[in-house]
Amino acid sequence: MSNKLIIGSHVGMSAPAYYVGAIDEALSYGANTFMIYTGAPQNTRRLPTNEMHAAEGIKYLAKKGIDVKHVVAHAPYIINLGNSVKEDTYELAVTFLQDELQRVADFGITMVVMHPGAHVGAGVEAGIEQIIKGLNTVLDNDTSGTIIALETMAGKGTEIGRTFEEIRTIIDGVHKKSQLGVCLDTCHINDAGYDVHDIDGVLDEFERVIGLDYLKVVHVNDSKNERGAGKDRHENIGFGTIGYDTLLKYIYSPRLAHLPKILETPYVNGVAPYGHEISMIKNKVWNADLKAELGEK
Ligand code: FE
Ligand code: FE
Ligand code: ZN
């Protein structure tokens, strides 16, 4: 276990360089890890992994000294394993996920973050039941070994995963627990109503309800909204209601030191903020002028 800060951001995965381009983007930010969607986040169309330069990327990662075990994938946010109302939506989520686990493994990546799902009016219990059914269908027949990290959600609309208890209930119902993990998103837990500033309180609660062994990745985002707003709107580091000092506590907590920290903060005036934010984090110096420097109007 290294004590080195493991930090990166969401990066693009687009033509023509795909995986190699994603790695270059991460390196340009001074990151030593990153998160990709294996295609567009808002749809499920995917190219064969060889066309996205999977094998070439794995070699490139090794050459650049990035440990692929810290690299994370994210499932498209439109898939919904929790939909018990529309069979087609649920089936698409299952089918996509089955392929995604192997696709991710082709990139050498060991974990994919997924929003648990939304119950779309059927109620939390029915939604959770459907998610469990879906995860078992996918994992019982999986040979990739890829971990699905269920993300803690803000509770927007009918989203499931707003509380640690909901995540725990899902885990309890899944047979192959070795392939389950959790992604803690600081913006989401704030918007869901947790007191994000009490980091030890949050982590103690996580340990009590889920178990910190399940925690695989931390999404570090500030929030545009007050605690409990149920909104899910990310803000740049230090410009929201969570604030720079609290976010730094998560980033440098010894209890989270072994986990990748991924920024999903918004672009400023069309410019990616990640290089600036990562240097602000590494130097432990807050830059109040960041948005102005990035050309905010
Ligand atoms: Fe997410
Ligand atoms: Fe997130
Ligand atoms: Zn979010």
What does this structure look like?
This protein is of the alpha/beta class and 297 residues long. The protein is 37% helix and 14% strand. The chain contains ten helices and twelve strands. The chain has helices at residues 18-28, 54-64, 87-106, 124-140, 164-173, 186-192, 199-209, 244-252, 274-283, 290-293, and strands at residues 7-10, 33-36, 72-74, 111-114, 117-118, 147-151, 159-160, 180-185, 215-220, 222-223, 234-235, 261-263. An eight-stranded parallel barrel has the order 1-2-3-4-6-8-9-12, surrounded by four helices. A two-stranded antiparallel ribbon has the order 5-7. Helix 3 crosses helix 4. It is globular and about 50 Å long. It starts with 6 loop residues before the first strand and ends with a helix. The structure holds fe (iii) ion (2 copies) and zinc ion (ZN). Zinc ion is lined by residues 185, 187-188, 232, 234.
Average pLDDT taken over every residue: 97
Q: Ligands in the structure?
A: fe (iii) ion, zinc ion
Structural class: alpha/beta
Reported for the largest beta sheet, the result is: 8 strands, parallel, barrel
Beta content comes to 5-15%
Shape: globular
Strand order in the sheet with the most strands:
1-2-3-4-6-8-9-12
Radius of gyration: 18 Å
Give the end-to-end Cα distance, rounded to a whole number of Å.
43 Å
Helix share of residues? 25-40%
Q: What is the strand tally?
A: 12
How are helices and strands ordered from N to C?
A: EHEHEHEEHEEHEHHEEEHEHH
